[in-house]
Prior knowledge:
Helix content: over 70%
Mean pLDDT: 85
Number of helices: 7
Low-confidence stretches: none
Order of helices and strands: HHHHHHH
Shape: elongated
Structural class: mainly alpha
Number of domains: 1
Radius of gyration: 20 Å
Amino acid sequence: MSAEIRKKLAVNYGLLLGAAGVVISVIQYVTVEDFNMAVRDSGNGALAIAGIVLTLLFPLLALLKAKKEQGGFITFGEGFKLAFSVVIYSALINVVWILLYTLVLEPGYQEAAQEAAIEQMYEQNPDMSDDQMDQAISMMGNFTTPWMMALFGILFSAIMGAIIAVIEAAIIQKKPSEFS
């Protein structure tokens, strides 16, 4: 598969997956009544499942399209690069959304997330000393900035994208026979 075809498919399916991720986030944003509760319980089951299904589906659709365009053949390497690229393009779209959401639409998100995490820490670790709690809160503050959330979003997506790409490319691959 040429780099041009791979890039076209990766961008198209990555943009679709990224847009789907943003739509899921917007649905969660507009359907939650209490902002602080949304921060604390951000794992809406149906939306989380939809996100997982779509994250598996879009790279697979890109692979199937590439395989079809190449006469029914795709190597593992080509498949891996394509599926991984779809997830990375999607991650970039979602990082832009995260930054827009946390810096513009809900600038109080970071504080609400920290307050919810502190409450959870107190509930889960009632025996923790004040010094330990202060140290944990300080470390948490460093990792819940919008920029760090964006960085971790890219890293998590890269890891998950690699796993998805390996599995899907291994399943979809088909090399042309030497004797055909």
